[in-house]
Amino acid sequence: MSSCSWPGKNQTMQQYHDNEWCVPSYDDVYIFEMLILEGAQAGLSWNIVLSKREEYQKAFRHFDIDYCAKLTDEELETIKDQYNIIKNRTKINAVRSNAIAVLNLQKEFGSFSTFLWNYVDGQPVINSWVSEGQIPAQTPLSEQISKDLKKRGFKFVGPVIIYSFMQAIGMVDDHIRTCSYHSRNR
């Protein structure tokens, strides 16, 4: 069986591919973490983001949503200066605004997970791509989720980011059909 080739020989990328990518998660904290990391990736490689993941976890107290929602401008600036994260101020500020938006969704839907997974009736979309070149950068569903999240105050949630996010939390399985990690091969 041939596997997805995008992780290459990079051990961090391979571990992410094997253990997290396209694995369904219903945990709000993990989902929030992936939303923040996918937003941080905009314009960069996923490898860069994964290499800074531990620093993000330290800086944002393992993506404690309540903590992130209460961060002040000064605290966000300190985080930017003291941690080895992506230094884009707008992306860093999005952590707070997205945390606030998540808390609002939790009040309305019970959880961030419930809100998101309702788009796919609680079950992942399992694709059967023959090659990685077939995997889309965005879909009508990622466009809809992006639009809905933006209306609710989320930042860095364009349709391409959201499609990657959907892969990250397992709302879609985009492993190629012959990859041993594809849902149908496990």
Q: Please tally the β strands and state the result.
A: 2
Mean pLDDT: 97
Number of helices: 10
Q: What is the global morphology?
A: globular
State the helical fraction. 40-55%
Strand neighbour order, sheet with most strands:
1-2
Q: What is the total number of structural domains?
A: 1
Low-confidence stretches: none
Structural class, by secondary structure, is mainly alpha
Protein name: 3-methyladenine DNA glycosylase
GO molecular function, one term: DNA-3-methyladenine glycosylase activity
Binding site for Zn(2+): 4, 17, 175, 179
Pfam family, one: Adenine_glyco
Task: Write up what this structure looks like.
By secondary structure, this protein is mainly α. It has one domain: Hypothetical protein, domain 2 (Endonuclease III, domain 1). The chain has ten helices and two strands, in the order H-H-H-H-H-H-H-H-E-H-H-E.
Put the structure in a nutshell.
54% of the residues lie in helices and 2% in strands. The chain has helices at 11-19, 28-41, 46-51, 53-59, 65-69, 73-82, 89-109, 112-117, 140-151, 159-168, and strands spanning 125-126, 172-173.
Question: Which key terms come to mind for this protein?
Answer:
single chain, 186 residues, mainly alpha, Endonuclease III, domain 1, two-stranded parallel ribbon, 10 helices
Q: How is the secondary structure organized here?
A:
Elements: H1 11-19, H2 28-41, H3 46-51, H4 53-59, H5 65-69, H6 73-82, H7 89-109, H8 112-117, E1 125-126, H9 140-151, H10 159-168, E2 172-173
Parallel strand pairs: 1-2
Helix pairs in contact: 2-7, 2-10, 9-10
